[in-house]
Amino acid sequence: MSYPIIMCEDNQIQLQQLDKLVENYILFHSNLFKVELQASKPQQVIDYLNEAEPQNGIYFLDIDLQAEIDGIQLAEIIRQKDVQAEIIFVTTHDELAPLTLKRKVAALDFIEKDQSLDDYRKELYDTLDYAKQIIDETRTVQKKGFSFEVGSQVYNLDKSEVIYLEASDIPHRLNLVSTNGQFEFYGKLTELEKKYPFLFRISRSCLINPENIHHVDFAIREIGFSDGSTRKFSIGKSKKLKTIIQETL
Question: Considering only Cβ atoms within 10 Å of each terminal Cβ, which end of the chain, N or C, has fewer?
Answer without folding.
Answer: C
